[in-house]
């Protein structure tokens, strides 16, 4: 599993990126993070919701309750235009950071 501080620091970017293509609910996001990271990143659903609520208050995502017959009600989150801008800024910041880190450590030449 990845370092907890690194995971925490990248959580918002991860959630925004996973919401870039379509709306998703919290449990789906947690499972997708595990699957796409080969279980290197894991977020408990209980820890995702406070992040999603904060992102909703900050207008980065929009939540909507959806009920399907025979299933429990779920809150789906989708990216807002402000969320797309925030994701682009996160990506650029990480790109700059990783480039600098690679230069300092020689990691990209290993």
* Helix percent band: 55-70%
CATH class membership: Mainly Alpha
- Overall pLDDT metric: 92
Name the poorly predicted regions. none
Distance N to C terminus: 21 Å
Question: What is the tally of beta strands?
Answer: 3
Largest sheet: 3 strands, antiparallel
Strand order of the largest sheet: 1-3-2
Domain count: 1
Per DSSP, the total helix count is 4
Q: Shape, please?
A: globular
Structural class comes to alpha+beta
- CATH architectural arrangement: Orthogonal Bundle
State the CATH topology.
Arc Repressor Mutant, subunit A
β content, as a range?
Answer: 5-15%
Radius of gyration: 16 Å
InterPro entries: Metal_resp_DNA-bind_regulator, Tscrpt_reg_PadR_acidobac-type, Tscrpt_reg_PadR_N, WH-like_DNA-bd_sf, WH_DNA-bd_sf
Protein name: Transcriptional regulator, PadR family
Domain Transcription regulator PadR N-terminal: 15-88
Pfam families: PadR
Please describe the structure with a list of short key phrases separated by commas or semicolons.
three-stranded antiparallel beta sheet, 110 residues, Arc Repressor Mutant, subunit A
Describe this structure in words.
The chain is α+β, with helices and mostly antiparallel strands and 110 residues long. The protein has one domain (4-104): Orthogonal Bundle (Arc Repressor Mutant, subunit A), CATH 1.10.10. 58% of the residues lie in helices and 13% in strands. The protein is built from four helices and three strands; from the N terminus they run αβααββα. It has helices at 4-18, 26-36, 45-57, 81-105; strands spanning 24-25, 61-66, 74-79. Strands 1-3-2 form a three-stranded antiparallel beta sheet. The model has no long low-confidence stretch (mean pLDDT 92).
